[in-house]
């Protein structure tokens, strides 16, 4: 007899019943599993629990009725059809960095696309086409062979899908825009199971939605991104101990804020405010050699990156300092083996003001008030530049006036710390309420999509209703 699973809406448990005993909606999983070329896992399978925990963010309840590890387009289409026909709930997972890639409930299905890892670089056109399961590390590793890079994030184990379709911030954001701004084309499977190409000329309304809200409209199985000639980066690393006897850390933060307002500044900045003994501010000042080449093309005087970074150092008083030229991939992969899978609470808004004296004071106040039983870091990524040059209605990503993303990350070492950490984080973010431009979907737990997408919400809702009328993918409600 084939295995039939009955799902009762008023119960949370899954019941295996005989064909003659069915009273509610019944689903035949055996036939579905036979149609999948990849692997599938259900609760009675040997490796089910192991597969459920094969994710980066472990601070979730993850108990799907079935996990599908897709290996090709057909697996994804079969899964979508199965979900649609049986009115199940779907979440899409690659690396599991986000809590929306987990599901708790007997009618939940995880579609894992982490095995779709094809990568192809077109050196002449300076583009890269990647499978939806690639990590940022995968992509940087391949493009670096050609002296190219596309704007990606700072944690290399993150999957490209959720990262780029939510916006995508990183070391190249100021000069080359968000990851989604550099998306040229993608192949997406929509709720009707069709595989379609989307770009600025073909299915352009869908392409607009993908650039900031891709997870709401389909499963993207391949992306093509614009790349830039980037091999090395000059990095100034400056540490400022947070000390009550001086304002060195605060003044350094303010200096970054001042420089951000200078549109001609060829440097970009990444800030880590870390708990420790003592608490300290780490400012990484970045100079990309191609910026110097652009200056020469524009007739500007040649000034070496080292000299420019040294000027920043001279305007502040670091506790320790270093300036070096490194491969760009070394910068991209610096947290490999340091930031590991585990239980975290992580969120943070996009600012509309630069780092003013008030903002700098608040940042130091937040780290000093942290819960001492955990490790906390505040990661500040610079936007501005190319991000601000794109109109808020040009893509689904709406917050084009942002200056910095303030991302507060805390490790949850024990369950008793979880709620205090959440409360502290929320209270800390509220301190910046007068300086916040909006929520960033990749670093927010908010379920209020009107708040996330602002003026773009209504247009996005209409596009979703067209391509996903049955609300199979992530909900906008």
Structure description:
There is one protein chain. With 477 residues, the chain is α+β, with helices and mostly antiparallel strands. The protein contains 16 helices and 23 strands. Helix 7 crosses helix 16.
**Tell me, what's the shape?**
globular
Ends distance: 41 Å
Structural class: alpha+beta
Average pLDDT works out at 91
Low-confidence stretches: 1-24
Calculate Rg over CA atoms: 23 Å
Number of helices: 16
Order of adjacent strands in the largest pleated sheet: 18-15-17-16-21-22-19
Query: Biggest β-sheet: count, sense, barrel?
Result: 7 strands, antiparallel
> What is the percentage of strand-forming residues?
15-25%
Give the strand tally: 23
Helix content: 25-40%
List keywords for this structure.
alpha+beta; five-stranded antiparallel beta sheet; 477 residues; 24% strand; seven-stranded antiparallel beta sheet; single chain; disordered N terminus; globular
Briefly, what is this?
The chain is α+β, with helices and mostly antiparallel strands.
Write the layout of secondary structure elements.
Layout: E1 4-6, E2 15-16, E3 26-28, H1 29-34, E4 39-42, H2 48-52, E5 66-69, H3 73-86, E6 89-93, E7 108-112, E8 119-122, E9 127-131, H4 136-143, E10 148-149, H5 160-165, H6 173-176, E11 183-189, E12 195-199, H7 204-213, E13 219-226, E14 228-229, E15 232-241, H8 248-260, E16 268-274, E17 280-287, H9 289-297, H10 305-314, E18 320-327, H11 328-332, E19 344-347, E20 350-351, H12 357-368, E21 376-382, H13 385-388, E22 404-411, H14 418-430, E23 436-438, H15 449-453, H16 457-467
Parallel strand pairs: 5-7, 6-7
Antiparallel strand pairs: 1-2, 1-3, 4-5, 8-9, 9-13, 10-14, 11-12, 11-13, 15-17, 15-18, 16-17, 16-21, 19-22, 20-23, 21-22
Helix pairs in contact: 7-16, 8-12
């Amino acid at each position: 007899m084939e295995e039939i699973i009955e799902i009762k809406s008023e119960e949370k448990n899954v019941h295996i019943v005989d064909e003659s005993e069915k009273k509610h909606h019944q689903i035949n999983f055996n036939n579905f599993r036979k149609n999948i070329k990849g692997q599938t896992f259900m609760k009675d399978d040997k490796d089910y629990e192991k597969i459920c925990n094969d994710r980066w963010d472990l601070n979730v309840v993850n108990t799907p009725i079935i996990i599908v590890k897709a290996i090709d387009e057909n697996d994804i289409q079969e899964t979508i059809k199965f979900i649609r026909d049986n009115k199940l709930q779907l979440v899409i997972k690659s690396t599991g960095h986000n809590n929306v890639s987990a599901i708790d409930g007997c009618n939940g299905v995880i579609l894992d696309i982490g095995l779709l890892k094809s990568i192809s670089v077109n050196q002449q056109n300076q583009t890269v086409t990647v499978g939806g399961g690639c990590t940022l590390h995968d992509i940087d590793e391949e493009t670096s062979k050609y002296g190219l890079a596309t704007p990606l994030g700072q944690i290399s184990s993150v999957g490209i899908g959720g990262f780029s379709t939510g916006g995508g911030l990183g070391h190249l954001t100021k000069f080359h825009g968000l990851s989604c701004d550099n998306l040229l084309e993608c192949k997406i499977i929509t709720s009707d199971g069709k595989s379609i190409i989307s770009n600025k000329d073909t299915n352009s309304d869908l392409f607009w939605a993908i650039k900031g809200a891709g997870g709401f409209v389909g499963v993207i199985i391949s992306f093509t991104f614009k790349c830039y000639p980037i091999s090395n980066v000059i990095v100034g690393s400056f540490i400022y101990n947070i000390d009550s006897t001086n304002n060195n850390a605060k003044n350094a933060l303010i200096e970054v804020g001042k420089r951000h307002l200078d549109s001609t500044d060829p440097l970009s900045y990444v800030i880590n405010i870390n708990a420790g003994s003592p608490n300290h501010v780490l400012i990484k000042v970045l100079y990309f050699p191609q910026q110097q080449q652009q200056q020469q093309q524009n007739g500007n005087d040649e000034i070496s990156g080292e000299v420019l970074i040294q000027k920043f150092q001279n305007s502040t008083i670091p506790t320790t300092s270093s300036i070096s030229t490194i491969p760009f991939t070394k910068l991209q992969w610096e947290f490999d083996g340091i930031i590991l899978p585990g239980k975290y609470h992580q969120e943070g808004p996009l600012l509309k003001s630069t780092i003013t004296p008030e903002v700098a004071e608040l940042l130091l106040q937040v780290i000093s008030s942290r819960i001492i039983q955990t490790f906390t870091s505040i990661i500040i990524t610079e936007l501005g530049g190319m991000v601000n040059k794109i109109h808020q209605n040009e893509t689904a990503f709406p917050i084009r006036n942002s200056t910095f993303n303030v991302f507060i990350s805390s490790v949850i070492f024990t369950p008793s710390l979880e709620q205090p950490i959440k409360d502290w984080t929320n209270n800390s973010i509220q301190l910046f309420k007068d300086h916040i431009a909006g929520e960033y979907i990749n670093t927010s737990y908010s379920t209020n999509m009107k708040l996330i997408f602002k003026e773009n919400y209504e247009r996005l809702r209409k596009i979703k209703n067209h391509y996903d009328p049955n609300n199979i993918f992530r909900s906008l409600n």
